[in-house]
Amino acid sequence: MSIKYDVIKIAKAAREASRKLAGLSSEVKNKALLKMADGLEKEAGFLKKENEKDLSYGREKGLSSAMMDRLTLSDKVIKGMADGLREVAALPDPVGEVTKMWLRPNGLQVGKMRIPLGVIGFIYEARPNVTADAAGLCIKSGNAVILRGGSEAFHSSIAILKVIHKALEGAGVPADAVAVIPTVEREAINEMLKLEEYIDLIIPRGGEGLIRFVSENSRIPVIKHYKGVCHLFVDESADLRMAEEIVINSKCQRPGVCNALETLLVHEKIADEFLPEMGKRLIDAGVEIRGCEKTMKLIPQAKAAAEEDWSMEYLALILSVKVVKDIDDAMAHIARYGSLHTESIITSDYHNSRRFLREVDSSVVLVNASTRFNDGGQLGLGAEIGISTTKIHSFGPMGLEDLTITKYIVFGDGQIRV
Amino acid sequence: MSIKYDVIKIAKAAREASRKLAGLSSEVKNKALLKMADGLEKEAGFLKKENEKDLSYGREKGLSSAMMDRLTLSDKVIKGMADGLREVAALPDPVGEVTKMWLRPNGLQVGKMRIPLGVIGFIYEARPNVTADAAGLCIKSGNAVILRGGSEAFHSSIAILKVIHKALEGAGVPADAVAVIPTVEREAINEMLKLEEYIDLIIPRGGEGLIRFVSENSRIPVIKHYKGVCHLFVDESADLRMAEEIVINSKCQRPGVCNALETLLVHEKIADEFLPEMGKRLIDAGVEIRGCEKTMKLIPQAKAAAEEDWSMEYLALILSVKVVKDIDDAMAHIARYGSLHTESIITSDYHNSRRFLREVDSSVVLVNASTRFNDGGQLGLGAEIGISTTKIHSFGPMGLEDLTITKYIVFGDGQIRV
Q: What is the pTM of this model?
């Protein structure tokens, strides 16, 4: 009862704040972001003290060292949060942009103007620094935000919130625009997901379990980011040295993230020439190869791939490799096993580059480039709040623009409908 | 069990068809639409015969004459469906459009390309002609569609589907791209709403009850169209003759639709001059007026408005009228009682026109024009599939573009991430 009441109260206040936020100038919003950045750096001592409470609880609970690492607010992480906020402040404000304008035969001038969505519910796992990142992106795009972080980072998130509130008030922005659900009870998420009257969009960031739970229980629209089973197809006409560099970069530069390469598809006509050398470089880089029969003949160290391997998001130094007949075979494999995330073709053939770009149904489709470019910063969107793998509202990396929608504005001179 | 199985089978086949549809040229899709139009006209006799089954069942059930009217497939309605399909065929194809393209410092050229959503679930009430309209818009935008019409129109919808399937096959488009759930059981809707794996978007069109039911029970994103409580504010500086014409048009041209005017707000400084004459014209047009105290003094025939009147969507010749202090008071009233649908200001003041356009949070905001222009055709989108009053994916009238999303396309020359 009391959790339900608290969550509703927070959501109502956020809705109220979002109305004020929608009308704020970029100047005021930027000032708030810069004050948040300065505040976080100035209060580093306080943040680390509060963070220590989460860390000691984490040690008690026996969290993995990777988890403990993500949980830690070091000076470097705090500087990262502050710099992130300054970068967002420097980005153009999407709100108020008129994306199109046209004239109707009756003289009406019709345009589409970007406006904030309203209130965003942001549900995420351990990292406390996401609190500041998400708050910055939402404030800049004129949205209020309700944050529900992982219970392991509870004290850290509340401490970051305190610093943010002080900064918002100093800049003349309503403090209710950024709220943290002040409880570790899971029940609070269930309550949040029912408040379609006050919350416009839910963005969950975390493991597949969290995202499925949220999307199955929410009455509010959810932006989903499921796994990234990313493919790279080396076409018959590929520049094979370029292909090697791009495969190594896609697989090895940061294997634990969603845009890392998971399956390599190779045209059968160049497999004999390409795979032995490629295999050697991958194995030298510590990559385990799970291949089809032809691959196993060309790379002696390769293990046999099982059917499940073709849909695996390894997030590790493992790569499944398959020799395919042609581009159609490659695209059919991607359609069957892919996750609509990121796919790349390495080719020198004009027609095949066009076909791949047009026909592959993924949020980012690349020609002759690393899968690692599926990232808001890398594609030029500035900071990103997530990557959507569903085709509603946004598809692919989401920047500030994706936290807005357009309304129609109409300039008339007395027009009536006949 | 069997309904569940049928719905899943239909949805799987639609998903399969949607993959083929995404790659079809505009030529093929247009040919299919024109064949559908011709087929409906040629099979008018068959359609009317099947429609008669629904009509006789409707008479037995004692449906209202308005319902019976909506249910009837007359020659005129059939010609309307055919002409609608021809109009959609003549519209530009949104699929494949690159809406933006930019160059990154590393030479990557990044663009956003429109692609179909995939499979649309369309749930609607009595009118059987919606079957053809929705099929036309979905096919043109490269989407498969699963239609669930009102049970009263069951035989008519199935008959229309038969004609459509023949046309699709004649044009080389997979027939599974347009499906009708072949049962009147409500359970089929529940099954549809669970199939997030096969259906990308649900569009319900009908009364508030249907829309709430769908949005509370769906795991698939839903485009909601709730009621339209549309406002018009006559500012101090308004051209009062223009205001009169626009009020009459907004209220009386077609009072039963969602973009008809429901509440008139009048600046207190011009109320004495404006309201007596405006009231006379409204009453002459048969409009019942429910007003605030000041309104009642200026229009003797006005009844007192109750608190509920300010949030009523009358859909009838009734208008609530309130005298307000100024534009801030007007915008506060709209924020409190409005439905984010359509609001218009009548003004000659530059600053107030800018403020109203910027600050009013509705899907269509107009200056000096009738609220009746919130319509896809009137705003220049071509045909419309609905009006969204929620700010996710689309806000306002939805045309072909709103049945697409953009993916990122990236042209590289060997770029890797550093």
A: 0.94
